[in-house]
Amino acid sequence: MVKRNDYRDTLNLPRTEFPMRANLGEMEPRIQRFWEDIRLYETVKEHAHGRPQYILHDGPPFSNGDIHLGQALNKILKDVVVKYKTMRGFDAPFVPGWDNHGLPTEIAAIRAFDIDRHAIDPMELRARSAETARRYIDVQRDQFRRLGVRGDWEHPYLTMDREYEASVLEAFQEFVARKCVYRGLKPVHWCPECETALADAELEYKEASSLSVYLRFPVVSLPERALAGVPVVGPVSFAVWTTTPWTLPANVAVAVHPKLEYVLVRAGEEHLVMARGLLEETMKELGIADCEVVSATPGSTLEGGKLKHPFVDREVPVVLAEYVSLEQGTGCVHTAPGHGREDFDTGQKYDLPTLQPLDPRGIFTEEAGKFTGLSHTDADPQIVEELERQGMLMKAGELRHQYPHCWRCDSPVVFRATKQWFVDLEPFTADALEAVDSVTWVPPWGLPRIRGMMEERPDWCISRQRAWGIPIPVLYCEDCGHELLAPEVVGQAIELVRENGADAWFKAAVADLVPDGTVCKQCGSKRFHRGEDIFDVWFESGSSHAAVLKTRRGLRWPSDLYLEGHDQYRGWFQLSLWNGLISQGGAPYRTVLTTGFVLDENGRKMSKRLGNAIDPQEVVRDLGAEILRLWVSYVDFKEDMPTGEDIFHQVVDGYRRLRNTLRFMLANLYDFDPARDAVPREDMGEPDRWVLHRLAGLADRVTQAYESFEFHQVYHRTHEFCAVELSQIYLDLLKDRLYTYPPTSQARRSAQTALWVLTTTLAKLVAPILSHTAEEVWQHLPEWEGKEQTIQLCAWPEADEWRDRELGERWERDIVPYFQDADLAVEHLREHGAVRQPLEAELALYCPEEVWQRLVEALGEDELAAASGVSKVTYGGEVDAAPPDAYVAQGDRALRIAGRRSEAAKCERCWRRQESVGEDSDHPGLCARCVEYVTR
RNA sequence: GGGCCUCUAGCUCAGUUGGCUAGAGCGCCGCCCUGAUAAGGCGGAGGUGGCUGGUUCGAGUCCAGCGGGGCCCA
């Protein structure tokens, strides 16, 4: 035993300080401190100075809470892109940003400070909101940094910075100059809880329960050509269906489709009018069996008919509308211009009044008569009762359907006609579509998707009735109330805001907001008051391209890349594009890359309510940022991404394989200095050249994967390479050479040369993703002349020089399959109990002599045994000479392998069984080869 | 209800322009090693390719419909 230990000391066993267990919770912060110490962001920036730029423009998250998994994913992906591009030789700055204004933060502030928002002074609320925003900027900044995201964290862009605010107003000024901004009374989505208008992008559609009510609109008169000459006994009514009875007080018409056929139906004692296509379904719903069609007529003939409102003393006309459909209801559509977009259009066409009996809180005003003072939700059942009392109710049921809810407070929204500021986008649509076509959309289906959205987009409501935001710089005439929207007013506001921030608009004396000589265009008055509305936050974030890219040194407009979740086709991508087009004349990005959504392990959406949301901070704490980073490279982020404990555990396993492979190689480089010891390529052994040839292939595929944003390919290819090419094949056959050969022998140095190339190349290939681990590897590599201070300053690895197609093809054809056969032959022996472990075995190959020759030439007889995992491999002869129980190679390979237990003694040093063991009297336990090495 | 996306072994992914017995890694089971050791090696068991039709000599790969999931919208 003593002797054996002596020989152990003559081996070159792996050594390294690189720990097997990562202990990421400790290692990552240490690496991050190192990056801070060397001022990594600035260092990289200086390094990249003068190179071609690659600008990824960050979409700003709301500064209203901890970051969630989707945001962690998003920033990591951006980090991967930026780091990759940097290594590829670009100057790729990353300026992170935050969206500070708007409801998300205002609500966070109201909650945090327990504010009664009706009692608080708006300026105070603004101050509190700003405070909340600042707090969460700090929180999120720390959280993003903890993920290892490299960026200009000391100088992020904030939408509440004065400069930024001024830029938003400058964009607005362009809009005004292009004359596309107007004020109008229109039904908009309105949140009664938040008491503000909402943009399309601020709605969430969710399953909700509504009433489903069938009611009567009694006929007062119908045009002659409709139902002419039909003898009718008893009352006649239009059958109408609605899910929002509370909108009935605002009803001013019933719409029918001009081209659909309508029927007069006798139903028991009365007669009803409805679309023929919905007759059967409606009768079933109403439970009426006793009915017959009396006559039929096209909808167009009904136009001009007069109906009686079911409970208000009001006569309402029958009108025509193309949007009436046979999907649901009766084909006779209740029309309230104050409560629906289409209804409003119809109202305009027929010059109907826009009744709007709902106040900002969703409470009925006096206009609603007997329902005054009720909230619209409370009114629903009372209106049904009223219908019942009036004998106008036919059926009241329930319906579950998708209904829009406020994105912030989760309440169901209503349509409410109010005076708001709009942008008319129609004049720009053609240009916008052209701009969209010139952008690269990844994945490609993004193009038709955003096109479809932009083609059908209604006017953009940009005003909000809240405190926390940038004011819309408009004035209203004190005398006649007419609005004054003028470039000079905006211009003056820009200077004011640039100097003092957006608060200044609200604080300044009105006189300071009114340019000299301004008079009301309607009444000539010179007295004005300021507008209190603020901008839709999407107008703010949609201006970021100009506010950031055009004002910061080192950036450029347009950007190369926007990278966000695919919900942003509707949001940031689209609104940035309109904004860019109108204010700058083009799209603010060249490529748009979208990600899927994070789902739970069952493929369900994550939500706080379902309790299946994963907190990235928890993942970082329990598993490490590297695991989160590797996860974004484990799944295909362009699709929806399932997540969960199981999946993270698999990522952890994958991480271990990568880490240990790197560690093993590192551990065999402890005495290697590439400048001194590297073996020239032509002197390297075939296995070493083969593995580097394979590495070149890997580098190609990985590079291609980065270029096409297929980061999951980076992980899967690299992982497979580590597991198969390295662990199973190359590193296994290398051990004998690395451990037992003389340290400075060319054979060992050749192996180390390969290991050095492999380690440095692999570390660089994964550096954009596994930034901490790659850095850790880098720091553990021996020093050499010209070694970069950090791996993040390294150039992208070039492995082309190692490509050797002839050798590669020969190995794939002749050599690699043999390894599998050798393994199976040994397994064959083990199954029969001849040996327990491979080194107890020796193999005899039966094959055409040229096959044998190829193996020997590729590997050498010595390494052939090592590569086979056994003590000895010999040539037995032609295939037909093989013993009957020999293993038969797979496929049609002309190879049989006879294995047997070696009779030779085990060399104490190299553990191979060799006949030569015992020949040397000084070292009776060693084989001849080991004797030679030991005594050399 | 509409538009778009998606559905390959328990899990994450590969599968050129339709063509041999559908692959990999992980996980799982069995064995080996103890000189990568809270590692490593070998072997094995796992797939009616969401479902149903169709085009074709032949479809995971093309077409239609249905279903599950997701995003967006009404």
Give your account of this protein's structure:
The protein has 936 residues and is an alpha+beta fold. Helices cover 40% and strands 18% of the residues. The chain contains 29 helices and 32 strands. Strands 5, 6, 7, 8, 9, 10, 11, 12, 13 and 14 form a ten-stranded mixed beta sheet that branches. A four-stranded antiparallel beta sheet has the order 4-3-15-17, with no helix packed on it. It has a four-stranded mixed beta sheet with strand order 28-27-30-29. Strand 23 (559-565), helix 18 and strand 24 form a beta-alpha-beta unit. Helix 7 packs antiparallel against helix 13 (487-500) and helix 23 packs antiparallel against helix 24 (711-740). The chain is elongated and about 125 Å long. It binds one RNA strand of 74 nucleotides through strand 14, helix 12, helix 21, helix 24 and helix 27.
